[in-house]
């Protein structure tokens, strides 16, 4: 595993993944930007009632757009941003076990996406338990993303401060 990370964790790949992450974010913002209601993926948490209130507010046209946007954009995006997080963590820590952690976000993000697509496609029929599970998937996804970002910040600061101390000594 470490060999794979060493091979993939190049500066060029890091820059490429950063650019792709930015492009995905711009594409998602442009695609979903004219929705009257924020998409469920952007909430930190939502209950079944909150999910269905948002789904109802979208209307038929935006529910269909949400489904297609998720299928076309939000299934490749988790792979890209998780690879970016993984390579960033590996480059800062040089530990494959630590670098693999962000890859666990992908199945959670996919569970969130599939559940939301199902809820949108079944509306007005309601599936309260699945809507609640979607809110949990969303929360778990964001907790994992924030934990990875915080780890990157801490490791970066540690390396920066360690480098400063070595320079002074």
Beta-strand percentage range = under 5%
Protein structure class: mainly alpha
What is the count of β-strands? 0
Shape: elongated
For the record, the count of structural domains works out to 1
Q: Looking at the chains present, what oligomeric state does this protein adopt?
A: single chain
What does this structure look like?
With 169 residues, the protein is mostly helical. The chain has one domain (2-168). It contains seven helices and no strands. Helix 2 (11-32) runs antiparallel to helix 4 (77-93), helix 3 (48-72) packs across helix 6 (105-122) and helix 3 (48-72) packs across helix 7. The longest helix has 41 residues, at 128-168. The two termini are 36 Å apart. The model has no long low-confidence stretch (mean pLDDT 90).
Describe the SSE topology.
Elements: H1 2-8, H2 11-32, H3 48-72, H4 77-93, H5 96-100, H6 105-122, H7 128-168
Give structural attributes.
80% helix, mainly alpha, elongated, 169 residues, 7 helices
Concise synopsis of the structure shown:
By secondary structure, the chain is mostly helical. The protein has helices at 2-8, 11-32, 48-72, 77-93, 96-100, 105-122, 128-168. The chain has one domain (2-168).
